[in-house]
Amino acid sequence: MLELLWPVLVALALFAVLGWTLARLIGLRGLWAAAAAPAFTTTVAGVGSTVAGWIGMRWSVVPALGVAVLIGVVIVIVRRVTGSREVVRFPRRYRWWTLGVLAVTGLAIALLIFRVLGAPDAISQTFDNIFHLNAIRYITETGIASSLQLGQMTSPSGGIPFYPAAWHALAAIVMQLSGASIPLVINAMSFSVAVVVWPVGALLLARVLLGSAPSVMVGAGIVAAAVPAFPLLPMDFGVLYPYQLALALLPVTLAATASLLGIGHHAKRLPAGWWALVLIGALPGLTLAHPGGFVGWLALSAPMFVVFGVRHWRASTSRSRRIAVIVAALVYVAAGVLLLRALRPPLATRQWPTESGMGEAIWQVLTVTLFYPAGAWLVGISILVGLYWVVRERSGEVMIAAGMWFIGAVLFVAAEALTWGNLRDALTGSWYNNWPRLAALLAVALVPLAALGIARTADAVTAVVRRRRVPAAKRLTLAIAASVIAFLVFHIQVTPQAEDWANNVYGADEDSYLLTADETALLERVDEIVPQDAVIAGSAYTGASLAYALADRQVLMPHALMDISPDLELVNEHLADAVDMPEVCAAIDALGVDYVLDFGADEVHEDDENPLPGVQELQDSPAVQLVDSEGDARLYKVIACGRG
């Protein structure tokens, strides 16, 4: 796994140079700066790549740096004009606890990711990964990374006017700077997001809502590493790399929202205008990584706005101020409903069926059995204990923690089990009515409440120990030992089963879904055989189109879901018959097809429902000549139509 180290360091350096610098200029320090850096970097990449597309500039680290510098200059000017010198940080006396918890949490997640991947350049053997792999190659080749233009890879006619491309834009820069292969870069991005971005954000949100006590940090770290529905599930199901990034950025966005509303601990150390700037700096990145993250923010921030409204209602001393609160609440609800409707994907993509009955779905929430067969029931107990402490404390902050969990649970249950179709679509249509996506969102939403249950219970036990006059050094030793044991118990309780489940997605053998070991071996030789300017035909459903990402050779179908021109349809259906069909030769000439990768009829979805007879099972076709093979995977040269 040492091969991952260099692209991981490049990705983290990118977060530091682009995002951490901006966070420091705004006045964020410590954990706040570390959590905000990836969000600001993603915003720079998402916005910068779009602007670069508008002005015709190739996407690279240069325009990204340009956007970051421009934003930084504006921040510096505003701070000087306003005379602002405020900074925000958590108490430094707990920094070693913070660093220790982040290290242990990151290590636990890192080991899980390593075991799932199996190899540093392993690829996810899933349908969506065809697009992700080839999109990075497309960006580095064309210089186009705009969310308004990336869809042209599969729809040159403009049929895909928007595709969230911030993750791909970042991955392309990491590839350009590191020189690593596309599979290595993708795994480095996933590793960085899962091991660094996610734990830092989870700890930040917990500390904002629950305070800076070591028990809060330990509780948040334990839970962040103990529920594989996040960050592992988006690497397993889908595959949902952009969604993984968006959900990892969600905690810092929620923390900034709470601070803007004057909610939480240390929320008022910066003026409201600067907190608004932090939120504005995070939201575009969250949205351009994946709109599902933005809708997640709309949903999970609702309890914060409720608490904010209730506090202002109680503080209002006049009728006019209370009317203003009511009007603001109505505007907020109306805006939220409009955004939910506007951000729903097309109906054809929202047809995911329910998975289980209502009772089973609720049981899965209570036992935290989210996607994977083994439940994180210790986390479930922590949530129930957390609800007990919510009832005891009844502060706005702990109620927000409970509200976030409740909203996440309702959305998950609705997607998995609600049979009232219109209501289900209204609630979860923005996530395609896809319950695994809501499982990942719930895994994010439950962290503060579960951390509350662990932290307050630990504080109560500590108070008992302190009353028994146990020396401070011994108390510290016991606290560290108990924290490590809790990390191990919570983590081991469910992650081995999730690892076994997810590992099947990344293995490359004779039964792999997308690329078998033979097909992978053949692709590794394609760039030695096929000239740089040649075009390769083949079925995207069988993985043949990955010659673009893995061998840097042009392919006719960079993805299975794309515009099919009449010429492309002719080639897909009849290339094998080109000797007897002159019209096929015209299509071959128009598209410049020189080679064909024939990976048989086995498709990524194992249904063989998308046969392309013109480019499959070509062993008896006089239109092609075998050039190389590995097992059942074959590379042919087109010899018909005067190309022999």
Structure description:
It is a single chain. This protein is mainly alpha-helical and 644 residues long. It has helices at residues 5-26, 30-55, 61-82, 95-117, 128-142, 166-178, 182-210, 214-226, 233-236, 241-260, 272-289, 291-300, 302-315, 319-342, 358-367, 377-393, 396-417, 421-428, 435-445, 447-467, 472-492, 495-506, 517-529, 547-551, 566-574, 582-591, and strands at residues 535-537, 554-555, 593-598, 624-630, 633-638. It folds into two domains: 2-502, no CATH class; 517-638, no CATH class. Helix 10 (241-260) packs parallel to helix 19 (435-445), helix 17 (396-417) crosses helix 20 and helix 25 (566-574) packs across helix 26 (582-591).
End-to-end distance: 44 Å
- Based on CA inertia axes, which overall geometry fits? globular
Describe the sheet with the most strands. Answer: 5 strands, mixed
Q: What is the count of helical runs?
A: 26
Q: How many domain regions? A: 2
Helix content: 55-70%
Number of strands: 5
